[in-house]
Amino acid sequence: MSRAAATSMSSVSWTVSWTVSLLLLLLIRLMGVKTVPDVVCKHLSSQNIRSLHQDGDVIIGGLLNVHYIPASLKQDFTREPHYQPCTGLDLESVKHMYAMAFAVEEVNVNEELLPGVKLGYRIVDSCGRYPWGLHAALSLVTGSADTCNTTASPGASDPAAQTSLQPVPLLIGASSSTTGIMLSRILGPLSVPVISYLASCPCLSDRTKFPNFFRTIPSDIYQARAIARLAVRFRWTWVGAVIANTDYGHLAIQEFQEEIRGKGVCVDFIETVYRSTIDRDSRRAALKIQASTARVILVFCWYTDVHQLFLQLAKLNVTDRQFLASEAWSTSDVLLKDPDVSAMAAGVVGVAIRSSQIPGFENYLRNLHPARRPGDDFLIEFWEKEFGCRVRDTASSYFSASSSSPTKDSAQKVSPPRCSGTESLQGALHPFTDTSQLRVAYNIYLSVYAAAHALHSLLSCSSNISTCSSPENIRPEELLQHLNNVNFTSPQGEMFYFEGADTPAKYDLVNWQRTAGGSKLKLVLIGHVDGFDLHLDESAVQWRTGSSQVPVSVCSESCRPGTRVATRKGEPVCCFDCLPCTEGEISNISGSPHCEPCPSEFWSNADRTACVPLQLDFLSFNETLGITLTTAAVTGATVTAAVLLVFLYYHQTPMVRANNSELSFLLLLSLKLCFLCSLVFIGRPSVWSCRFQQAAFGISFVLCVSCLQVKTMVVLAAFRSARPGAEALMKWFGPGQQRGSVCFFTSIQVLICVIWLSISPPVPQPDLDVPGLKVTLRCAMASVVGFSLVLGYIGLLACTSLLLAFLARKLPDNFNEAKLITFSMLIFCAVWVAFVPAYVSSPGKYAVAVEIFAIIASSYGLLFCIFAPKCFIILLRPEKNTKKYLMAR
User: Model pTM greater than 0.70?
Assistant: First the structure.
């Protein structure tokens, strides 16, 4: 085991030993034993605890950290530990001590508060060490200057005086949450009230565990949540944290994380620092801050720890971080006035204990002088430190501590001169006498008044809580009951009361801004916190850059509108990628977690930031596809008209007259209608165009196919009638019967169309099934059954015609028209069989184009297969246009 580890374990073991000894001492005192065994005292007698006290009828205790550098532990592993005196006089804590003394003196001159009763105090320096604080607390509540030696005379502030003192029924102290927890639990069995001015742990609000604890500082819940709301308000989604390795730090960051949960703020790292290893811990934390991408760092530490952290950051030249300060260091003069850390500290935004002024306190501080308080060791040490002279013939602990390390040149050191007595704080500009913004001092001031009002209620018999008491017989449990119900107005006009252990939460929001010269920092009030409400003047904030531009601290830049957040697997939610919204979805805010679909009649714009009305699209005459189909349809109609003219011109020839020329003319007319009806499908659909196009299409094709079917039937009947005994067959297929058959077949389709279009006609409707900015306006089939009957009837006639033509294809004739009909119907059926899958799979207006193509293609097939051979003979082979040639076998 290393020597460092051994030293650390030895220190821990002695701390535990101290605590056990103190508990044993408390048990001995409770049993009424006056003599404390040496086995207990040997752990407690080596320290030198100093105090400041004033006699009175009732004494209240005070426990403050007047010094902030703990005594060093010297251990040679063979002897018991020896503690050297505490060093590092804290001017703020000295001011806090005199704030308590001033409040007591102010109470004593108040004729309405505790009349006839003089209030006294005893303030002890615990030096920030838990064992010392516990020892001092037990000394106060048990009534001894030194717990192991009760010979001190009362009224002496000299620690050498060893006489029994009056026990205190109430203790004002606990400068940390850990100390508050320990004091409350140890003094809880005695029901001694503890009023803390700095212990802010939320756990201390639990009255079941800490029934004797009170505080004049709000719970850390409020400041942690206020800092969290600052992070949310300024959109700092990626922050780091440095916390004290105590209950204060751990519970504060826990509350911070609880508040930011679900609000888009993540903590990149949490570094802990401990006061006894601050050099090493601050170096590690500074390196972590340097390596992190977080630009906003929140710090829950004591100001001395923050000072070391800033010094380490200065060495690393890390000056581009924005710090959020807890109340433990947000108003520290040490940091504000240290030029070595000004580059890091500029722009700090923090939560501070609410400030107030205490009238008369500044004059009280300026009138302090060792000549008027010769027994005040704290004032003498402060005086010698500030003025560099000796008040007494022997140097105080300030000079003793500064020369406590023996060297070979120590004998040659020059002793400081004696003070002349003209030194004074009157008229001096000194932080010690600055009472413009009292924070912790005001908390202590309120603590004294809370204690005074509770004592007043107890001693004046003005309450029904308990029986009357006298100053000589105050029972702590009775005082505790009155303290729970205290309610008064402070000299500053503030209503004061306890809600359990707490007072209503009030904070200031402060900002560290550069002065006009830029070399110094000043503290500026920028808002306040009232409970959970945050009131901030953003225009008054000066950030670390010296401007009003809010710093940015994010893991990933906020996703712009038109994109959505996509979290990265295994990383915090604040680290994400931005994916563009798909078509038909939008996001119109930055950092949107998802894309919203557009309503049915809208579509996303190109940037995916807004839904715009759908653009209606249809097959028009102006586009290439429409022009092509129109040209094909008009050409087909023109060719059909030309064929019709040829047949009219040669209507007396055998080729035209063969097989009922009337049906040929009717067939050409129906084909022309088929070509022309396709034009109705082009253009913007309307109610009447939707109805007319389907009726024209269905009737035209039925008329065409009916003509072909009757022609085929006539061919079959003609050849059948040539057989013996079948002469009467042709009387059923005369010209009148042929015309009647065509009309009959066509009338069935007309009836279907009339019923369909009357009951459930097609209507123009946007085709929303196909996604896109452009939506096709098409004729939607309200009744699929009606459309199916139209197509089915056409198909039935076509199949019948094909079957009859197939049967008549081999009849003995030089020019058998059944062959032509067979080929034409094969093409017709092939086109419409292919039409069905093509129509179903085609999107938007292309489905309409497919239907038009099928109409034109099938019409061209019928036209060329039936009439092209006839026109060839009529125009180019007139010698074959004879009855003899046509009837030849």
Answer: no
